[in-house]
Each structure stands twice: as C-alpha cells, then as structure tokens.
Design a protein that fits this description.
Blueprint (H helix, E strand, L loop, with lengths): L5 E7 L6 H6 L6 E6 L6 H5 L6 E3 L5 H11 L4 E4 L4 E3 L1 H13 L6 E4 L1 E5 L2 E2 L10 E6 L3 E6 L2 E6 L3 E3 L4 E3 L5 H21 L6 H18 L7 H30 L9
Parallel strand pairs: 1-2, 1-4, 2-3, 6-12, 7-13
Antiparallel strand pairs: 4-9, 5-13, 6-9, 7-8, 10-11
Helix pairs in contact: 5-7, 6-7
Length: about 260
C-alpha cells in the first residue's frame, strides 16, 4: 500500500441499504473504522463482515462524529467517506499512485464527488465537482465548518485529485425532500447560533441565485426536467433555511429569550 498506511473512516446510522457497497469499495485500505450511532437495522451485521474496528457512539452531530472517527484512526493517512459514497476504481488507483510518489510533499488531497440520482450521473446541474478534502495526513488535519456540512482543514499543502467519489445521494424524491427538511432545520439553527439575523433580501434573492447557478450557469437545463427539478429543490433548500431562521427568531421573541436558539 503506502508508508504509514490508510485508515478509512465511515460514520453511519441505519444504512443497511448502502453500507455494503461503501465498504466493498474500501477493501483495499489498511484499516476501516466505523462509528455507528446504534443502528437498529442490519448495518452492524454487514459492517462486521469487513472490519472489527466498529465503535458505537450516540449521535453528536455530523462534525463531532467525524472528528471522533478521525481520532480513532491508527494509520498515517485518513480517507473520509460517507455510507452513501463509493471509491471509484479510478480514484483508488490514483490514491495509491500519488501516495507512493508524492506523499512527503502533500498533506491533504481534494476529491471531486459525482452524484447519481434520477437515473443519471450529474456532471452538470450544480452538484459537480463538489470538491473537498477527503484524504489527509492524520496529524495535520482538524475539523471545521458547521453541521450538516463539516469540513476538514489541513495545516500544509493540498492538491486536487482527478477521479471522483461516487455519491448515491437520494433513493428517490421522497428521500430527497425528507433530507431537505432535516438539513434546513439543522442549518437554520447553526445560522442562529452564529448570530445571523433574518433579512428579506436573503429569503428573496439567495434562492433565486441558487436556482440560476444550478439551472443556467451549471447547465442543468441540458438535463431536461430532472435538471429543472434539482435546481428548484436547491432553491427551496435555501429558501427554507432562511425561512426557518425567521421562525427561530419569532419563537425567541415569544419566549422572551435573548435570541439564541434552543439546542
């Protein structure tokens, strides 16, 4: 493999439909660390076929859970992957190649992510390339960002990789809408904790900007109705995030609070 080895970290809860394909794509790494939030389906049973490094821990938020998994990795390099993602063959080969050639000069690698949804791969329409640091030297990385989208920051040089992670983002439209509901609730609370104030301009123009970015600038219109649907739901996500921020402000006023959201 590579000097120091690679630990893959996976955070999951009730992912029996996804976890096998995810772990199959990781069989080439030196170690797989799974942090599970007490799944009630067959997730753990499937994970045990691939690794004995399984830790159960109550859900503490996306960022906290990822940071915990990171801390339990024992190899020099850490590959962070979600249960609904897969390492493509091209990405696996590229990782092995770069770590054997230039690992001493680089501390983190940014990986593009290619989503599969509505029976197509989304190279257009706003979701691609969605690059983030996914492979990093364990001791050089820390976690930043806010739920539900934490990110890794690296103290050192980073480089882009070319081959993507495959992302099987939503099972269907119902799953897509459910996650919009969940994530906008989390995002609005994060905005509130950051001291952000609701403004008409945000609720009016940010969704419009997101729709135009996905549908026009990122050429979602070339995907037909699915491209329109993805752009529209991206705009709805932004609209609901700020609408819920307003809702939190109004709740705080009714309760006579100081403006902080409840945890």
């Amino acid at each position: 493999m590579t000097a120091g080895g690679i630990s893959a970290i996976v955070v999951c809860f009730n992912e029996e439909d996804n976890i096998r394909d995810c772990l199959e794509s990781l069989k080439w790494v030196d170690e797989i660390v799974v942090v599970d939030s007490y799944s009630t389906d067959r997730t753990l049973e499937i994970c045990r076929e691939y690794t004995d490094r399984i830790i159960q821990r109550p859900w503490a938020g996306y960022g906290d859970q990822m940071a915990f998994a990171h801390s339990r990795a024992t190899k020099q390099w850490v590959l962070r992957i979600d249960a609904d993602e897969r390492v493509s063959d091209g990405l696996r080969q590229e990782i092995v190649s770069v770590l054997s050639r230039s690992a001493d000069q680089v501390d983190g690698y940014m990986v593009p992510r290619l989503a599969y949804y509505l029976n197509r791969w989304w190279r257009r329409g706003g979701w691609y390339p969605d690059r983030s640091i996914r492979l990093f030297r364990k001791e050089k990385a820390t976690w930043a960002g806010e739920d539900p989208h934490p990110k890794v920051t690296v103290a050192g040089k980073t480089r882009r990789l070319r081959n993507p992670l495959y992302h099987f983002s939503y099972r269907d439209i119902s799953d897509h809408l459910r996650r919009i509901n969940d994530f906008t609730s989390i995002s609005s609370r994060q905005l509130r904790r950051q001291g952000k104030k609701w403004r008409w301009v945000d609720n009016l123009f940010r969704p419009l900007f997101r729709f135009c970015r996905f549908y026009i600038w990122k050429r979602g219109f070339l995907e037909g109705f699915p491209g329109f649907f993805v752009a529209a739901t991206a705009a709805i996500y932004v609209f609901l995030k700020y609408a819920r921020l307003r809702e939190l402000e109004l709740e705080a006023r009714r309760e006579g609070g100081t403006g902080r959201a409840k945890p």
